[in-house]
Amino acid sequence: MSHTTNMPRYFDNPIKVLHRLREAGASDQIAEAHVEILNDYIEHGLATKRDLNEQEMKFELKLKELEYRLTVKTAAIVGSIVGFFSVLEKLIG
Questions:
Q1: Would you write out the chain's pLDDT as a tens digit for each of its 93 residues?
Q2: Cα(16)–Cα(2) distance, integer angstroms
Q3: Is pTM, for the whole model, over 0.70?
Q4: Are 5 and 14 in contact (CB under 8 A)?
Q5: Cβ burial, residue 20 (10 Å; 0-12/13-18/19+)
Q6: CA 39 → CA 35, 46, 76, distances in Å?
């Protein structure tokens, strides 16, 4: 996707590119070929809705995994603290 961000805005409109090439003296056939090549190049770097949905699902899964690991670690820490104070109470009391 990053390769399209520095391109001039007229690449967003293939008709403008087509007219500009024709004005520069390119034949219809050559101008159309150039526009098709540019379109293919630009579209190759774009994410589809499916791509975005897949990335969202992966991200949500990673968040769930992180939440689970944090819960387990928090429970272990709390258990250690409770155990520490139980031992401390027996030693002092």
A1: 444 455 556 567 778 888 888 999 999 999 889 888 888 887 788 888 999 999 999 999 999 999 999 999 999 999 999 999 999 999 997
A2: 22
A3: no
A4: no
A5: middle
A6: 6, 11, 55
Residues contacting 16, CB < 8 A, separation 6+: 10
- Residue 11 near residue 38 (C-beta atoms within 8 A): yes
Looking at residue 3, what DSSP letter applies? G
Q: Cβ distance 4 to 46 under 8 Å?
A: yes
At 35 the pLDDT is: 87
Q: Cα(90)–Cα(85) distance, rounded to whole angstroms? A: 9
Which one-letter DSSP state was computed for residue 44?
H
CB 47 within 8 A of CB 1: yes
